[in-house]
Each structure stands twice: as structure tokens, then as C-alpha cells.
Amino acid sequence: MTRVTRLFGGLLIALLAVTSAQAQTPRAAPALGGYVRDQNGKPVKGVRITVNQGSYTTQGHQDVIPLFIPNKVMGAIVFDDPSAVEEHSINEHAATTDGKGHYSFKKLPPGGYTFWASPTKRSFNDWGAIVEVKKLARSYQFPKSERVTVESGHAAVRDVVLQSRTSGVQQTHGR
Prior knowledge:
The protein is built from 2 helices and 11 strands, in the order αβββββββαββββ. The protein folds into 2 domains: about 30-55 and about 90-175, Sandwich (Immunoglobulin-like); about 55-90, no CATH class. β10 and β11 (about 170-175) form a beta hairpin. By secondary structure, the protein is an alpha+beta fold.
């Protein structure tokens, strides 16, 4: 009985030590984050920030449209388009700025990324999103893409300053 009690006590102490060590581990900072503001310092909500590690294109596309009669497949129509070109991103991630103009990517693997801001949102399911995107595109000049490096253990910061369509050139800068 004492042997079982000692074994149980040892397991309990080991379990407490592991959970205590995990509780003391500081939360990881975002791998990449920052703010999007206009030239007057006001936050810009709804800007899509996208990063990827490159892209490639493929040529040729095939669409298959199944033909159905209730509860039975009758065949399919196949469309081949050998001249269609599709672009595919490698390791792409996107975030949308909140009301404070903040965005963050919490789990980006270390490496070099292409970084850009755009007025587009992922979903166009409602009229409000379409209106917001058009308003952003009309109001601001969006910067061209640039390279950003994410290092292991270090949070990269990339702030974006959007110039209005009536003022000068846009700029981005890291801290």
C-alpha cells in the first residue's frame, strides 16, 4: 500500500510541476502586428492585411458540371480551358484591422513574407461590406507590396500610413 501511495504522490507532484511551469510560461507575442492609420493619425478600420511567402501560376483549367435527375447522376459536362491562368499563393495569411486600426498574425513561421494592405475583405456576403470596401478604395491610396521578415522569438511590427486620395504618397514603416 505504501508503494502505491508513494507512486501516486510522485505522479501528483510531477503533474503539479508540469502545470505550474506551463502556467508561468509567458504568452507569445504576435509574430507580426501593427496599426493602419491615415495621415492624420486616425485608425482605419476594415483594411485587409495580407502576407504570403510567394506565389506561382498554373495554366489550363477544367470545369466539371454534373447532370442530375432526382436521385441519379446522368453524366457530366466537361469544359476545358487551356488558356486559363490561375495564381496560387504559398502560405498566405490575412487579417482585417479592428476599430483601433490594429491587426496581428499570431502564428507565422519564421521567414520572409510579401506584405500588403488592401481595401478588400474576404466576404462580400452583405451589402455593407461592399459599400465599406468601395469607400476605403475611394478614400485612400494603398501602398505597394513590400518584404517583411519574421524571426523566431521576435515580434515584427509593420505600421501602415494611408494617404488620402487628395494628398501625397503613401508610406509604410517598421519599428
